[in-house]
Write a structure and sequence with these properties.
Elements lengths: L5 E7 L4 E5 L2 E16 L2 E13 L2 H7 L7 E14 L6 E14 L8 H15 L1
Parallel strand pairs: 4-6
Antiparallel strand pairs: 1-3, 1-5, 2-3, 3-4, 5-6
Length: 128
């Protein structure tokens, strides 16, 4: 039995980009995850950046609406591919997550102070 499943929870580094290649549309984005460890009594934090690629009309379209700073849970497969780099002239290997599920973890926007005050008043009236 084989399994290739990745689950990441992190924040978008930039707005997602919708791209087209060979008449096939897909969306890419970079997701940052963070970890830390203790060294000599101090915490050292490390950020990892994950390249994510989303195929499929519905999911790729949704992914294209994601903005920088969005808090996401992403599930998919870890994939590698090779390409010829124009910068180095060598064959390079790139690792990416082929996404099959996105869960937006952002909290709903807070109500304005006026809306919050109205909500508090109606809560008090209901309690009375």
């Amino acid at each position: 039995m084989y399994s290739n499943k990745v689950t990441l929870i992190g924040f978008l580094g930039n707005d997602a980009e919708v791209r087209t290649n060979d008449n096939r549309s897909f969306t890419t984005f970079s997701l940052a995850t963070k970890s830390s460890y203790k060294k000599d009594g101090k915490y050292i934090s490390q950020t990892e950046w994950h390249r994510c690629v989303v195929f499929g009309k519905g999911l790729a379209k949704f992914a294209g609406t994601l903005k920088k700073g969005a808090h996401l849970q992403v599930e998919g497969e870890l994939r590698s591919r090779k390409y010829d780099s124009t910068k180095t002239g060598n064959e390079e290997t790139i690792w990416e997550i082929r996404v099959n599920s996105i869960l937006k973890l952002d909290r709903a926007e807070k109500a304005s102070p006026e809306e919050q005050e109205e909500s508090d008043e109606s809560s008090l009236e209901a309690a009375a």
